[in-house]
Amino acid sequence: MDQIPSRVIRFGKNPIYLPKFTITLLRTPKLSPYHAKFQVPLYFSKLDLRDYLYNAYNVRALSIRSVVQQQPVRDHVDAMRQFFRPESKKFMTIEMDKPFVWPAEPESWEPWGKSERAKRDQYAIDEAVGGDTVAIRKEALALREQAQALLEGRALVEEEEKKEGEQEQEKELGVEEVRKEDKVATKGDAQAALKAWKKSRTLKQIELDQSKGYKIRV
Fold first, then answer.
1. Among candidates 64, 73, 122, which has minimal Cα distance to 93?
2. What's the count of helices (H) and strands (E) in the chain, helices before strands?
3. pLDDT tens for residues 103-114?
4. Is the whole model's pTM more than 0.90, yes or no?
5. Residue 178 maps to a domain
6. S-S: 35 plus which of 31, 45, 127, 183, CB 3.0-4.6 Å?
7. What is the pLDDT of residues 134-178, one digit of tens each?
8. How many CA atoms lie within 13 A of 79 on its CB side?
9. What's the CA gap between 144 and 118, in Å, rounded?
10. CATH number of the domain encompassing residue 5
């Protein structure tokens, strides 16, 4: 019985040492391990992909399916009401003779800075469009709350300063009143001492020989 001849696959003979194209291997968890999907340039053909995979990675492509995905119409960012259609994308799915399984995704993307990159990209998009209105409103409300807090803090500080000034004035007034009372008390004590001295002193009369009729009370 004659053997069934194997499929004859012919490759191109034009070697390429410095390729100018980019081929992206896409992660497709819904496909089987024997299938792989690539994003290729629009001018790329099935023969080009088969030659590239075999010569670069020693991967045999048994069958290849290609599809060109048309992009939706969108408007310009800089020019309003001017619509255009972005360049279409071309995808190719190959069937391999050996299976390939993608490695498991990491639990956290923090070491690779995925969240920071996503925030930076979103910020760039918002700035290009003109800013996110919701984010701007949130920032405005936050600034308003901060301003109110500052004003309330200043008002509290002013009230405290007023209270301190009033307390100082009260202290000064109290000191002055005490001084006045001390002065009054000292005057009263002096007068009382003078009255007591007047009551307790002895009266003596001295008569002078020359000036008759004059007497001195001691």
1. 64
2. 3, 8
3. 888 888 788 888
4. no
5. no
6. 31
7. 677 787 888 888 788 777 776 666 667 777 777 777 666 665 665
8. 3
9. 28
10. 3.30.70.330
